[in-house]
Amino acid sequence: MFDAMRIEIINTGSELMLGRVLNTHQQWLCRQFADRGYTVNRQVAVDDTGPAIEGAVCEALGRAELIVVTGGLGPTSDDRTRDLIAALLGKKLHEDSSVVAHIQDYFTSRRRPMPASTLIQAMVPENTQVLMNAHGTAPGLVMEPVGSAGIACRLLVMLPGPPRELRPMFSEQVLPLLRDRLPLPVPFVCRTLKTTGMGESQVEEKIALSLRALTDGGMDLGYCARIGEVDVRFVGRGVEAQRSVEDAERIVRGILGPLVFAVDDEQLEETIVRLLASRKQTIALAESCTGGAIADRLTNVPGASAVFLAGLVTYSNEAKQKFLGVRAETLAQHGAVSEATVREMAEGARTATGADYAISVTGIAGPGGGTPEKPVGTVWIGVASAAGTIAQRRFNAFDRETFKNVTSQHALDLLRRQMHGAA
Ligand code: ATP
User: Across residues 204-220, what is the average pLDDT?
Assistant: First the structure.
């Protein structure tokens, strides 16, 4: 074993303490570190007043080798992080001409006038490395405080608050810096297999024994249950890391087969778009109770336009008849939430759009509308394709938001399995 380096994160912002903004940096940064073999030991959120930020940074400087501070680098009066940390470390600020040029460019290229106050972001503490902000104006700042009495910190990184600025800056600039200046003492390999269609304990029952030799040999194995998915995570350290993680992946894929749908960060909707695009095939949707949630997920994926033709949200019986050709007799005889209706919805969407595949969903999200035969949570999912139409009944008795999430996951997974011939 080796002594792990101590990492601390300080998230600043009064909006975090008022509950007006969810602290996604905490989760996102911890995950980025963990997946690369670095463990965050402590994370605090503080308001953006001087004493709160100073207190948190002073404490961390004495014990952490790496400190990441987020937020408070902007041009407004509540953005104090840069000035406070410079003062704490006894560094003067000077105007950095490359940051001035970047800020001017930022406004010129967007044809917007540059408020004079923005140039305050070009004030950089001495002996500080600047990380240019490709998506905004406030640069990230990297200092090396170690050397003074009582300071353990080797790298102090300040990052801008907006996630769309912080995330690319961290991935593209901070991670390479970390590998270079605070490298891990031993090789580290981490892989996550994403599975769907089975609960966490079932997954564990199926695979744990077969992975015993690898886990006994030091590979870490972890499970994480999410809505409609279970992640299986392997971590290997040392010279054997790569080989043991690859062996583990092979074993689990052999046991779970098509239940494994993606590796690492890929989402199910990304898997679907990737699969369809690689086969040059298209998809259409006929959604009722999911209200467009499946269309939303698919259209969040870059490149969706190559595969996604149309999504119809047919909430009423009339709309199901008018736009999808569901027959009045089918609705009268079986009801809107039925196998017969879901099949006609999928086939109708496929015919109307000419797509290779059509997914349909009809169900009772609740809280009202349930009956003894069709209780709240009952949902039918259909997939129509050249191979025919399949339909599946699910029981997703949750609040409306979770119902939509889980049902859209089931629907996308039914399509995925149909595409693999495994539905
Ligand atoms: P700006 O130039 O926008 O002022 P900044 O570096 O000063 O950037 P903040 O003012 O602290 O950053 O935060 C800007 C916005 O970024 C916040 O209003 C919030 O929407 C988002 N943000 C800040 N911190 C977090 C966080 N921990 N998690 C998620 N979002 C955050």
Answer: 96
Helices (H), 45-173: 50-61, 81-88, 97-109, 163-169
Distance from Cα 58 to the centre of ligand 1, integer Å: 22
The Cβ of residue 50 has, within 10 Å, a number of other Cβ atoms equal to 11
Written as one string, the DSSP assignment of 149-204 is TT---SEEEEE-SSHHHHHHHIIIIIHHHHHHHS--SS-EEEEEEEE-SS-HHHHH
DSSP letter, residue 347:
H
Strands ordered across the beta sheet of 140-143? 40-46, 7-12, 66-70, 155-159, 140-143, 129-131
On whether the CB atoms of residues 405 and 228 are closer than 8 A, the answer is: yes
DSSP notation for 372-405: SSS-TTEEEEEEEETTEEEEEEEE--S-HHHHHH
Establish whether residue 377 lines the binding site of ligand 1, counting it when its CB lies within 6 angstroms of any ligand atom: no
The one-character DSSP state at 146 is B
Q: Are 328 and 349 in contact (CB under 8 A)?
A: no
| 111 CB-near residues (< 8 Å, 6+ apart) | none
Q: Give 346-386 pLDDT, tens digit per residue.
A: 999 999 999 999 999 999 988 888 888 888 999 999 999 99
Decide if 343 contacts 385 (C-beta within 8 A).
Answer: no
Cβ(160) – ligand 1 distance below 6 Å: yes
Residue nearest to atom 27 of ligand 1 (CA): 23
For residue 11, give the ligand 1 atom closest to its CA. Answer: 27
pLDDT tens per residue, range 109-129: 999 999 988 999 999 999 999
Nearest CA to 160 out of 12, 22, 23 is that of 12
Three-class SS state of 246: helix
Distance of CA 17 from the midpoint of ligand 1 (Å): 13
What tens digit of pLDDT does each residue of 300-357 get?
999 999 999 999 999 999 999 999 999 999 999 999 999 999 999 999 999 999 999 9
